[in-house]
Structures are given as C-alpha cells and as structure tokens.
Amino acid sequence: MRLNKNDTFTVDGVTYKVINTLGEGGQGEVYLVSDGGNTYAFKYYKEIPGSDFKFNLKNNINKGSPASTFIWPKKYVEFDDESCGYLMDVRSSDYVSFISYLTGKNPFKDLKTKLTWCIELVESFKLLHEKGFSYQDLNDGSFFLNPNNGKLLICDNDNVSADKTNLGILGKMRYMAPEIVRGDKDRMTGERQMPDTHSDRFSLAIILFLTLCLGNPFEGERLKNHVIVDEKAEYEMFGKNPIYIYSEHDKSNRPINGYHTAVLKYYPMLPSYIKEAFHKTFTDGLKDRENSRTTEIEWLRLLSQYRDELITCPHCGKEYIYGYNEKKVNSTCPHCHNKTKEMCLLTIGRKRILLEPGKYLYTVHLNKYSSEYNHAIGKVIQNKNNPSLWGIKLRVDNDITVQDRNGNTKVIAKDGVIPIINKLSIQFDSQTKGEIDKQ
Question: CA-CA distance, 56 to 71, in Å (whole number)?
Fold first, then answer.
C-alpha cells in the first residue's frame, strides 16, 4: 500500500489527511499529514515489519523521548493489512541536514556554535544511554542542525532499542564500530556482537571527528591501496584492520596532502585534550571497547573546556584557543598571525573561562554537580555607550556579592550585571567563588 495526497486514516478517533510526501528512504516513506489543526510527519514502512520490531516501536512510544532533541515516535499506526507506521513531529525549517554541513553548503556560524552543537549531541546520547537505550545506527543522515545557534535534532529513532537488543539494523559502514563490521562474538554470550552503548560511543566519536575536522578518522593513505572503495575495501579499512589517521603507533595511514585538505587544516588547531580523546577511542578503543572509548561525561567536560577557552581575533574575526592546557599559549592568531589580544579570565574552581562579548556562562560553571552544559545563565555584554566596559549579565536565583582588589564589597541583584574588572572576587553562592584576572 502506498499513500497518496488527500488519503486519510484514523487513529484513536482522530482522522489524519495526507498533505504531501516529505521524503523516501530504504525502510519507508514519510508524509506530511494533518489532523485538521496540527501537522505531523508520518513514516510508513514499505515492508511489513516483524512482531519484535513492532513491539519495540510501541514500547519506545510508551517510554517517551529521552530528550527534546530526538524527533521521537509519538503514535503507532497499524492498518488492516498489518502494514504500519508512526506519527512524529515535523522538523522545523530552521534546521538543515548534517550532510549539508559536511559538504560545505551550511556551515556553522562560528566555532563556538559548532561546539555547542557537539555538546548537545553528546548530552542527548548520554540521556539515551541512561534510559537503557542504544541508538545502534549513528551515521551522517541521523542529524540536523541549526547553524546559527547550534541546536540539534536527531531523526530515525525507530531503530533505537534496548541495549544489546538488535532488530536487524547493524549500522552504516564508515560509522560502525569495527567489532560490529566484523561480526565479532560477544565475550559474554558467545553470539554475534550486537550494537550497544560501547559501539554507540565509537560511532559518536566518528561524528564528532567529522564535525570538527570534516574528514573520516580512518580514511588516509590506505585509500591508495584500492582502485575503488567497494565493500571489500570498506571491510578492510573500517572492520578488519582500521588504522587511525593520527595514530602514534602506526603512521601508515596519514591524511593525503592535496586530498584530505580539511582534516590537515582543522586537526592541528584542536586542543591537545581533544586530540587525546580521539586517539584513545580510535586506537586503544579498537580492542578494549568497554574501557578505552571516550565516554559521554568525558566528552562533555572536554568540549565544554574547549568552548570556554575560545577567543576571537580582533583582526580577522576567527576563533582559536588561547592554549592554557597546551605546551605553550598562542601568542599570535594561528589564522592571521597578528598578536593575541589582552584578555580577561574568569576562574571558578578548576574551570577557566575566557571572557569576551557574546561569551556565555552555563549552569555547569556554577554547579559542579550539574549536567546542564548548554543551559546559559549568564552572558558577557558591552555597555552601549562605552563599549570598552564589559559585564556579565546574570540569570540566577540569588544575589551575588563581589569584592574589588581594594576590599570594597557590593551586592548585585540576581538579574544584575557583574562588572568585568581586574582582580574582582565574585561570590556566586555559598559554595561557588570566582575571580577575574586580566591576562
């Protein structure tokens, strides 16, 4: 059965009318439908799924979405001939496909926005895994992004299932963990290894590498060994013998000059701690899937640190890290080579946030137990009449006490502005203290 424009179907007493076709994939067709007041997307499966798949889909609907970023199935629909599908929300037109970002059609507004998207991605999979799910099929077609604010949407959630339970979809080559590609045996059950949280983490690292470096972490010199990249070549590169392009142990698969231009440009600009996280997952994590793949908590801490350390060059307008955690700090902009500007640093415990107009403070900065890495509670602003005067506009539930270098104290209302001045001590609450320093 195929749905046509103006066809109708009824679920739980509500009638839905087909407006038009939104798209088509391997599993099914997606239609725009309306109940007369609201519009939804309806995915209809070309082939009738098995009972296990149907049960899992209905179970996921009953459990509900792990996070608002997932375009989660909302209502199961089954027809008289046992064919079926599900209703879900319609993706906003503000979002573009991750593939369009990779091809250069829709770049992020800036690096800060890109990192915000990465953090939202990791947060989403942390919540998914905490609910006992694994996504199982992370690939470049799974995600959408708002290039202006870093917001994320995750689609194709009908294959999400309980950890280590698989319903036929193993993943997409170039994104799958190598043990899934090879069909290794699970050391606990002796049966074929099924996608799970650990394989999700490998695929997640590949998506993050693609986002930050615009290249696949296993495609390098070894491409020259294959006339065409067919299934045999992919099995060799991504399953049988994957070699990370920046492996410290095997340098045989480095990026190719003139071919992997983006990777060669962007990888050197990553902070050392981000490089180490990729190296851990893509080398040790090839064999030790349970202990050597960077976890969501680790990625959140590292990506947040990366975002905190960004500064903007006043000459070329591009962002780069100052380099607190590197062997040496960047005394010049790596893009235009002009001298690094004077900066203000806010230190809160072990966190160091470089302040400049447009920079945000997040809940996690003031609450070390928080997992809200993208919930902004403060923003650096400039005085409209005197742009050289900066302050932190707050959105917190309590008043703030500040003390200048001379010992003078002042109470700032919970929705007030903290002046950014050298050696200012800030008591955010009874347990959280910060200090501003000019560098």
Answer: 16
Which CATH number is 342-438's, of 2.60.200.20, 1.20.1600.10, 2.60.120.260, 2.40.240.10?
2.60.200.20
Options 3.40.50.720, 1.10.510.10, 1.20.210.10, 3.40.47.10; CATH for 96-299 is: 1.10.510.10
As a whole number of angstroms, the distance between CA 422 and CA 405 comes to 8
The phi and psi torsions of 259 (rounded to 5 degrees) equal -120, -50
User: How far from each other are the two terminal CA atoms of the chain, in whole angstroms?
Assistant: 67
Distances (CA, A) of 121 to 207, 296, 341, 391, 402: 9, 10, 32, 30, 35
Yes or no: say if 292 and 335 are a contact pair by the CB < 8 Å rule. Answer: no
* 350-386 residue pLDDT tens: 999 999 999 999 999 999 889 899 999 999 999 999 9
Per-residue model confidence as pLDDT tens digits over 32-60: 999 999 999 999 999 999 999 999 999 99
Task: Give the ranges where 239-309 is alpha helix by DSSP (H).
Answer: 261-266, 272-282, 296-308
Could you tell me where the DSSP H helices lie in 15-137? 51-63, 98-102, 111-130
Over residues 132-189, the pLDDT tens digits come to 998 988 899 899 999 999 999 999 898 888 766 666 566 788 999 999 999 998 887 8
Tokens, residue 106: 């829709």
H/E run at residue 412: strand 409-412
